[in-house]
Predict the 3D structure of the following.
Amino acid sequence: MNISKQDALEWFEFLSELPGNKKDIYNQYSDVIEAIFRQIELSVNKKHKDLQNEIPTLETLKGRTYFVGDKEKFPKGCISCLFGTGLGGIRKTHQCNLTCKFCYYHDNIDNQDKIPNNMWEIGENLYYEEDIELLLSIQQKPSGIAYVYLEPFLEIEKYYGMVKKLADAGIYQHMYTNGTLSTEENLKALADAGLNELRFNLGASNCSDKVIEAMKIAKKYFPMVGIETPMTPEFLETFLKKKDAILETGIDFINCAELHFGEDNINNYTGEKMYMSRRGYISPLWSREITLQLMKMASEERWNLVVHDCSNHTKFSRELNKNSKQGGIFGSNTYYSEFDRILYHLFLPILKDNEFKFLIEEEIEDQYNLENCREDILSMVDSDEDEEMYEEFYFDEEETEE
């Protein structure tokens, strides 16, 4: 169904005004609802493809992701994620010293579960450091491990022993940090323990000079150092002002993460034009466009590093690979939306944008003409169903239109 943009807007405006979770409505009218999401996504994909075609030296890793630059500098942690046994996450720290607008934990940053003393969260279970030998003797050794979640440098001295154990086992390890707590001493100690790769979320500090200097210091000790940060207009503006200083640090890569939304950061982006990628992550249109803009610049100016398009497509590929390595059946994956319901009002800004066009539009079938369906839909509405939960977790539709 190639529904028109006007019909799509009328449908989503109507659905946005209804109370409740609308599950029965979706079940009855999934054809038209899914057609709207597909029309939006197809147009967004076309724009991305057009931008990719403007990048002179764009390369791909078997269609799973895209990059420009020296392939030898492509982050090996990403190779493990896309081709190895997946992204194995280890969590210790439950806090952060910054509060970033784009953070996936933003609204609940102070309510993260604390990991008990002397324990680590691995594979969603708790282990002592001394359990690592037992795990490695029984289970398949992962191709890579990532220290993710919040800010590890708040208690970085606790990481040295774990890093050394996994390094002795020959496991590739990378870590994420905002860099504001990095010093030459703790960077050297972490590298001496055996960490292979350090990634700085440069956007978290608004490209602070202190963190840029920390990246330069880190490059003295780690085999691979890079930036990984969500692509936002704020980051782009500051990055361009400090581009020369950043490139002079000698880092190996920039992972341009396409920002996506969950319950804890969606309220910070009210009214942005959004799309849903493969019925999974919801992202603002500008995020991947910024990535492709930086990739074009890097290609034309021949930056001495890799700029990696860590997009929703890349994350979809990651999940396909992970399921394959874990014995999933053909076609299985765990790429899904961060929300447990369809939030129709999130997509009104893009449908109201006169410059955003659907690729193909056709006259809607009578059975899906909204006027013919309105009375039937209203009969399915339960005004009390989950309304309190809806209002608690997600911003009002009225805010979207301001």
